[in-house]
Specification:
alpha/beta, Oxidized Rhodanese, domain 1
């Protein structure tokens, strides 16, 4: 199968349009953080997110309030769950189609951020614990 995009072009573009969790954390720490957009579901957002992120679910990006992202030239980083979840790529494509010029994807998504041990914000949610029988002493 012949493709008009060479492997070199593909991987060069991939690097240009992605940011690692380490680089994003460094940008946040230096005060030069891009606008971070979480494109996951409401439930995922409540359970944990990157501090300061905006929540714009992937299916809502095209309909989002323009006041959320008023600067079309702002540096924007979009993320979803992980490397095999293409929600962030879909959200990035939509943002680019809407006229945003500086859109990147967080490589590895939220799971990579979390696995890297970076700070996470979460709403207070009830944690469910599994009950396991541990053999309490019997009376008698």
């Amino acid at each position: 199968m012949k493709n008009s995009l060479s492997a070199l072009d593909f991987f060069s573009a991939k690097l240009a349009y992605e940011i690692t969790p380490e680089d994003l954390a460094a940008a946040q720490a230096s005060g030069s953080s891009p606008i971070v957009v979480d494109s996951r579901t409401e439930g995922a957002w409540r359970h944990g997110r990157i501090p300061g992120a905006l929540h714009i679910p992937c299916k809502s990006v095209a309909d989002c309030d323009p006041d959320l992202l008023p600067d079309e030239d702002a540096d924007i980083v979009v993320y979803c769950w992980g490397a095999d979840d293409h929600g962030a790529a879909r959200a990035a494509i939509t943002l680019i189609q809407l006229g945003y010029t500086q859109v990147r994807e967080l490589s590895g998504g939220f799971s990579s951020w979390e696995d890297g041990g970076f700070e996470i914000e979460a709403d207070q949610v009830q944690v469910r614990h599994l009950v396991t029988p541990i053999g309490a002493p019997k009376a008698g």
